[in-house]
Amino acid sequence: EKGGYPHFMLKEIFEQPRSILDSMRGRLELGASHLNMGGIRAYEQKFINAQRIIIVACGTSWHAGLVAEYLIEDLARIPVEVEYASEFRYRNPIITERDIVIAISQSGETADTLAAIELAKSKGATIFGVCNVVGSSIARATDAGAYTHAGPEIGVASTKAFTAQVTVLTLLAMIMGQKRGTITDTKLRELMVELDTIPAKVTKALELDAQIQEIAEEFKDATNFLYLGRGYNFPVALEGALKLKEISYIHAEGYPAAEMKHGPIALIDENMPMVVIATRDSSYEKVVSNIQEVKARKGRIIAVVSEGDKVIPAMAEYVIEVPHTSEVLMPLVSVIPLQLLSYHIAVLRGCNVDQPRNLAKSVTVE
Ligand code: M6R
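YS: structure for the whole thing
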């Protein structure tokens, strides 16, 4: 059942080229230059005229929501708020009939997310679900939605569900941008062509497995980790830190790289490993100077860079080169080495990666 892999988590990490493709199938038709998402058809005008989008989710799904915030604001120019479902619910939020609430959930059974949906519904908002489990409570509670086609995810640590969520949300943002006229045909076409290459790029990123295992050997006894990223890679930093925490029990935090100087930089010494996601994008130069700041304080740097980077290898202790892609699609590729790193560290520490202590696959209590 684990398909020859020692753990479900590793199997699921390696399934990603496939699950991303499955989540695009029928929605991205490159030949016909066509984007399509059945779930929004009945609500097209609502999406076009939405005054605001509120995303509710928990954990990894909340991280996918953060990526979606960047995507939707960038491509469709609609203001987006991303909320922890549990907080949203208990703070008397302002919701109107012109708001669209997007609920993201792998299991479709997360109690906090379900309760947030019920609240938003009672205020008249339109609820759109992005769920993996067909027929789940959340899928049934929403007005419309688009399933992620990740297939069953057994490992408690979410991996392929995350990239499937980001894939679906990317398509949604592209469709909204197209319908609202906030993205040019040329830009849209470029993104479609690039999105089509993502499964192959993820396959290439997975080939880094052996190198990442060596890095894991080096850092398996660390007691703390920091993860840094900017822009689209900021949510990826949060996701990398969450993965490490939940399966290896190492304390880890994700930060927007520029926030370092406002506090966390005080933590850096020769014992502090820092995973910096520094792919070639609009904040690249800034991230390079963040790396310099860390290096000056003797922090140990593991950098995730775009293939062919000439600058960072001279500065970082370890460099992981991932295939380059468009900035807006980068999370789908840059998250892969972070999933593998946490997996290998957890295995080397003898942890139960598929069923970490204190955690359940779906959290059905509020
Ligand atoms: O099933 P959901 O996507 O609603 O679950 C949300 C979180 O409980 C979940 O992502 C959790 O954080 C994972 N264990 C992360 O790996």
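YS: worth flagging: The CA atoms of residues 265 and 294 lie 8 Å apart.
IM: good catch. Also The longest helix spans residues 185-206.
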